[in-house]
Every structure is written in structure tokens, then in C-alpha cells.
Design brief:
Length: 399
Amino acid sequence: MNEWAQKNAPGLKFEIETIPWDGVYVKLMTDLAARRPPSLISVESPIAMQMMAEGLLLPVDDMVDKIGRDRLVDGVKWDYWGSWKGKQYVIPAHHQPHLLLVRTDIVKELGLKDPDTWDWNDLLNAAKTITQKKQSMAGFCMALGRNLCTDYHFAALLHAAGGRMFDTSNKFEVAFDSPETVEALTFVKELLPYMPKGAVEYSFLQVVDAHVTGQTAMSFYWGRTLGRAAEEAKPIFEATEAFNHARNPRTNRRSNWNDFQGWSIPAQNNPYIEEVKQALVYQQTSKEWLVKYCHSLMPNVAPTYKDVANSEELKNHPFYKSKPKTVDTYFKGSLAHSSSTANELLQGGNPLSGYVHGRSILAQTVQKVVIDNQTPQQAAKWGARELEAIRRENIRLLG
């Protein structure tokens, strides 16, 4: 974008401000309330869905036409990044699924089946077998702390079971107190004995640490784990591959939590709207810059446009030689199994999801089971009450 500015708006410079995951919402709302918004934002999809419903973002359909409506990779729609009431509010940056990361050396050593064939029962058996046969190593790791990572990890299991928080086809009625939610919570409880003992406090970085330092043989995570392992733990990097999640044995779903994250323009008190629009279109139509973006965090940020995804330039990265199957699974193979709290089961945008994550409702529901020892049925009822409160407080957004 600064390349565009140097050519077209001398004196204008775009600067990046990075914000920790758990601090994004508070920072954004504070800046917007103070009438000093950033000129352009890139936030996780649940926050974007909430902001567009609140009327805080600028429609970008004119930019979509300039970028190219037909450029998206197969298996996705513009809606996945963010549309509301027929208007597009988010320009794609990437898609970013968490998958099942597996130490294939250990799976082979213990004679376990190919993880590509697993259902939940196979995953549970593998976690149990590894824990029992490998001293000082957990079989499996996911986040269980009161944080966003737990929300995202549990949501994948909920959606694999066919469950959801809200029914988008019925005015976003709460649908959480269900057999599907109970099934997902029960599975987490069954996995718990085979996780690291500190997992009930884990968030994003602790899950990465557990895998990269050899404390666990399997974990739910995005591509960052592989990038870090490549730098710090070469043998673990070489032995780890990413797989689509194990199938729910009843539904056959392999749902992941895929963040369709993009670029949004605050609509109010933003003096640089036209400059931002032109600079972003420049960046989005530059294959060179889009390839650089994907290469900056391999294989964590997946390409969104066909001309980038199929380019030889994108393949000019060491991971394509060392981890071709894993890269392909993150970039392409995951798309058929995409879901997220912002667009549950890909049935429509959910403007309430940002509030859900702001209060850590899913993570607290999980902790009712793994810490407070409530039954999954009790925890599901508690979560449903909390979700109903969010719906009631924000009914104005649902239209």
C-alpha cells in the first residue's frame, strides 16, 4: 500500500499497529468511540461480522468489482469474508483453518492407522495409546483455558457434530442446548486425560509450545506451529503433518474453524477513505504482493485468489518441497470442511459471534465440564442461557 502511496499520494504513509488477539475488540471499540479509528483494519471474522451489522464499516462492492469477482479460489464465496443485507463489507486477506497436527513418526512407531481415515473414536484411541506408551508425552493437545483459542477449538467439534450456537434460518434463535453440543462436550471430556496437565489454562501460544517442544504428539492448530517448528525444532517439523480433522462418526463431518479474515474500512470519522480504497485495490491486484503476503507466514495464511493460489511464484517456498501435502491441506483441502463461529456451518453470517467471543461463552462452557465437573448437559444449558442473553441484548442487529 505504501508503494501505491509513493506513486499517487506523496507524503502519505501507511503504518501498521499490531494488537494481541484478546485485545483487538476493546482496542477497536475504544478508538471508534473516541472518533479516532484506524483508516483500515484487519480483524478476525467474528468481529468483522459484528461491526458490519453495527453499521461501523464501509460497503466495498465497488472495490470487489475492481479486484475481480471471479478471482476467488474454488469452494468459497465472497459472503464468507463478510456480507450483510446484500452488501459486501470485507475484502479477503486470507483464509486460515486450524487442522489436526500429527507427529507421523510416533503414529507409525505405534502402528496406528492413517490419520486421514480417523473418526473421533480413532483420534481418542490414538491419544490414549500415545499417552500410555510414550513416557512424558501427552497424546493430544487443544486449548481449554478461558480464551479465544478454546472458543475456536471447541467450535470445530461442535460443528462437526452438527451443532451450532444460533439458528440463522429462524431469527438467530439459540440452538446450543442440544444433543450435538452435549456430544462435543462429552468428547472433550473423554480426551482430557490424554492432554497435558496444564491444558485447562492453555491458550494459543501454549498449544504451539506443547507441540514444538515435544510435549504432545497431536494438536489442533493453524499453520504457525509448523513455521515455528521449522525454526526451533527441525526433527519435530520434519515429523509433523497436517490432516483434516477426524470425522464425527455420526455425521461424518470434519469441520475446522476457518477464519476468513479480510480488510475492512471504518465508515465514520475516517479522513482517508478514498486513499485507502485505491491503495487496497492496488495491493489486491498485485500477484507479487499477495504472494509475499502468503510467504510471510507459511502455511498459516492461505491464498484467496486463483491466480495467486495456482501461481509458480507461490510454490517458490521451501515448505512446498518439504511439506507439499500439509500446505495443500491448509490451502485447499480444508475448504470443503470450513466452518466458523462467524458463519456456522456456512449457513449465513452471524453478527452475534463477536459478543460471544468477547465473553468467552464457549470457553466457559468447556470449563464447566473440564474444571467444574458439571455434566455436559448442565454445561450446555448454562451456555444456552448466556447466548440467549447476548441475543436479547443485541436483537436490534438482527433486523
